[in-house]
Design a protein that fits this description.
The complex is a heterodimer of chains A (169) and B (267). Chain A is mainly α and 169 residues long. Chain A has helices spanning 2-8, 12-144, 150-168. In chain A, 94% of the residues lie in helices and 0% in strands. Chain B has one domain (12-266). Classes of the chains: A mainly alpha (169), B mainly alpha (267).
């Protein structure tokens, strides 16, 4: 046995020293390398899993939002169509009303114009009659070579004014 | 003509008091030092969630090893429990084997006492080309196998694998005896498989370098890199398999021992 041990150089002190070396290495690597590195791998794996979960949630939310958006757009489209239709109808109504009001106003203006014209015509005729009566009186004075008194003149003119329209018509 | 000297035993290159410092021990310390540097570099990365390239490389190595051991152990709890020992075993053995074939290892010699006389001995020698190293790791591995077996299954249940009452099951007694022998033989096979491969590699390289010093050793150096890697995996994976067998309930235990409670293991 001793021969065997000495042939291979087996010594208790060397054996224990190598075992201690290995155990120290196990301790150091375990404390400063394995535990933290495996820990960080696990943490990263968890973080990735969490991120994937979040991505799924975000995709779900996005799909939901897309559907909602499409529904809202569809609804808005329908509402816009209805609104446009209503606006057209209202615009038509308003246009008709405005047209009616404009026609009414125009008719009123025309009527008013006619009235004014009539008034002006009447005034003008009146003035013409006055001037004509005065001219006739003056002419009669010259023809008769007589001068009318103020009172005669006024009576004659009043009489003319009263009879002139009948005479002219 | 020059000669090559091949020694089965590692050589003492110095002494601290009565403790002899061997050339393989220097290599073990060098390997440890390199692994400590890696540890310090990993620690300097602050274990960031977004890793640097170095941290990512370390994570790939350790993550792959973790998955490898987990594929054998099939339990996350067990993998977490055994990982430090198994990963250290693999990294230590592989790195030790690889730096053992660096130029200078085995060729730089100093004058030291060897087998009672002063002679030129290599200053450095591959750490696994020393039975003391391989035996130490093998003993730790097999001690861990027995310890965790008992821890997980309970003493009575685990001992039931080796000790079976002959009046109940004579064949079981014999098989239990064989199991005990098998457990011890595993230490020997672990020790000499690793030692034999690495020592044989060293001898092969020495012989080739002696016969054809240039070019010819290159393919053998490549082969030794592969052997060093494979031996590290063999050692660690066999330990993993033995651990798995040890912590798994065996049929005999159901007959002779009460079911094991693993509550203490969970504590």
């Amino acid at each position: 046995m001793n021969q065997f041990l000495s042939a291979f150089g087996i010594e208790w002190s060397a054996l224990v020293a190598q075992a201690v070396n290995f155990l120290i290495l196990v301790f150091v690597l375990s404390r400063y390398v394995y535990k933290p590195v495996l820990g960080i791998i696990d943490r990263r794996r968890e973080a990735i899993a969490e991120s994937m979960e979040k991505v799924k949630e975000i995709e779900h939310a996005k799909e939901k939002v897309d559907l909602e958006r499409a529904a809202i757009l569809r609804k808005a489209d329908i509402e816009a169509g209805a609104l446009l239709e209503r606006a057209k109808t209202e615009a038509e109504t308003v246009r008709t009303e405005i047209e009616k009001a404009a026609k009414l106003q125009a008719a009123q203006i025309v009527t008013k114009g006619m009235e004014q014209l009539e008034n002006e015509r009447a005034t003008m005729i009146r003035e013409v009659q006055n001037k004509l009566a005065h001219a006739i009186v003056l002419s009669a004075e010259k023809i008769l070579r007589r001068e009318f008194s103020k009172a005669d003149q006024e009576n004659f003119e009043t009489e003319l004014k009263q009879n002139l329209p009948t005479m002219l018509s | 003509m020059a000669s090559i000297s091949i020694s089965l035993a590692s050589e003492a290159v110095g002494a601290v008091g009565s403790f002899q410092v061997r050339n393989t021990m220097l290599m073990a310390w060098l390997t440890m030092f390199l692994l400590f540097i890696v540890s310090a570099c990993v620690r300097a990365t602050k274990y960031a969630l977004v890793p640097s390239r170095f941290q990512a490389a370390v994570e790939i190595v350790l993550g792959s090893l973790y998955d490898l051991f987990a594929s054998i152990l099939n339990q996350d709890r067990l993998t977490k429990q055994f990982f430090p020992m198994l990963a250290t075993m693999l990294l230590f053995i592989v790195l030790g084997n690889w730096i053992g074939i660096l130029p200078g290892v085995g060729t730089i010699t100093i004058q030291a006492m060897h087998e009672g006389r002063m002679e030129a001995v290599p200053l450095l020698r591959s750490m696994n080309a020393d039975v003391n190293m391989t035996l130490a790791i093998a003993i730790i591995a097999m001690f861990a196998v027995q310890f965790y077996g008992m821890w997980e299954l309970g003493f009575r249940s685990y001992a039931g694998k080796f000790i079976v009452a002959p009046w109940k099951n004579p064949m079981g007694t014999f098989l239990g005896f064989l199991e005990v022998i098998s457990e011890f033989s595993r230490i020997i096979s672990f020790t000499f498989r690793l030692f034999g491969n690495i020592f044989a590699g060293e001898v092969l390289l020495a012989v080739i370098a002696f016969l054809v010093p240039y070019i010819a050793p290159v393919p053998f150096l490549g082969m030794e890199l592969l052997v060093g890697l494979i031996q590290g995996f063999v050692f660690a994976l066999l330990t993993t398999v033995f651990l798995k067998i040890a912590v798994t309930e065996h049929d005999a235990s159901h007959e002779d021992a009460p079911p094991a409670s693993s509550n203490h293991a969970m504590a």
